[in-house]
User: What shape does this take?
Amino acid sequence: MSDHIIIGAGTAGCVLANRLSADPACNVVLLEAGGSDKSLFYRMPAGFSVLMRTGRGNWGYSTTPQAGLNGRVVYFPRGKVLGGSSSINGLVYARGNPADFDGWTQMGATGWSFEACLPYFRKSETWSAGANKYRGGDGPVGVLRAPPVSQMTPVSRAWMEAAASGGYPISEDSNGAHQEGFSRGDSTIANGRRQSASATYLRPALDRKNLQVIMGAQVTRLLVENGRAAGVEYERKKQRHTLRTGGEVILCGGTIGSPHILQLSGIGDPKILAPAGMKVVHELPGVGKNLQDHVDVMLQQEMTKPYSVLSHTRPLKGLQDVFEYLLKGTGPATSNGLEVIAFLKTLTGLEAPDFMVHFPLLMFNDHGRDIVQKKGFSAAIYGTRPRSVGTVKLASVDPKTAPLIDPNYLHDPEDVAVLRRAVRIMREIVAQPAFAQFRGPEHAPGVGRQSDEELDVWIRASAQTIYHPVGTCRMGTDPLSVVAPDLKLHGMNGLRVVDASVMPTIVSANTNAATFMIAERAADLIANHAASPVTSP
Assistant: This one.
């Protein structure tokens, strides 16, 4: 009988498998519905573009029709492979603003202030620029800082120069003391390899005799006995199996998987469970609610000079890049293309930036599956603090039926207004003299869209997820919270949830760095290395 059963080998699950099994007296079983990440495309940083287009290592979810996006159904990828979404994402390392975490404590997630979280950010990281007060120097995850401005590609240099000439702030480190401004980007890359949770946490622990990893194991339900999570039932190779524990079940299924597994186990809101034909085992109304995600739109600009990476998306050049990577470990395939990142405010007086921008040297649509066949660059813009909130709901008692995912994108008009204001700011920056040498026509939204109404129509027609769902098992102490600040499920023994679903609100950045942090802190809570407050709504 295991001490811990961990469900899901995504970012959080891999961290916990490593940290908990470091105690040789602790027996850990890790269940993963997907398969191995032993593939070139999971290892090679530029492989994310192939993974995105092919859907490998992916649950392949889609949302319900989104009223705020003109009724469109949105492709909604989540990792289904060792390492989870950290094995297929765009490798951006961005923590969020300190105000995000301090806000969590104000919502009842005591112990999760930025001051409390910072040691765990540092613990997980080795920053290529060296440790300091804010950055780690000996953690498992290698984080690569983009080159100095003088060594950047000409377009990236232009972003930095245009920002400065336009009066926008420059941040020395957006993951350090000051998030706001244009900054050199950070990526989860070291020695030319992706730093997924599998590569950095799980793989070094695989030889431990007290750690068992079972792949291809899709959990069908939790075993609940006398108010306690006593184990799990899972399906593997069309056979049903059960695992029992005298310790804890730790649910790391992610923002979609964790509430879905709870609901499949009869844990949740009766108003959601009953229509799907599920008997209520433990009433917990907040399960599957509070879904938050970022959506982005792309300002796309044609270029008059050949600095685009368009040629690298074509078969022959792409194959050459792969061979260079395999033979020498060098070349474009060692990078995700991120050199510059920006966190800015659309209105003066805001406490923190309300939008973020990435700057790919390519114009594309539909999650990279539609490459615009013109030389150009993009500003991928998303509002970092969306007000629109959605749900994940059980669709069927059949575990293989995907849940109903309704992010409720752009329901709040202010979410549209933030994107509209951000597009105008980016247009102003592109109009700076620094871009004059290679600025071609605006491809999107296009110069014909200038009014608020025209931009709003374009935003609703083109916005897509940027893959940051959180919040569906949020921590807190109010009646709609799902877990306590120690991540124990309210009203049930032997069960914790540890992943991005516990965030009370979305961080104002990419979410993977914060998930590493949450799991590191959870490992200490579970091992009783830190105070573990127990509260119930």
Q: What stands out?
A: Residues 529-537 have pLDDT under 50 and may be disordered.
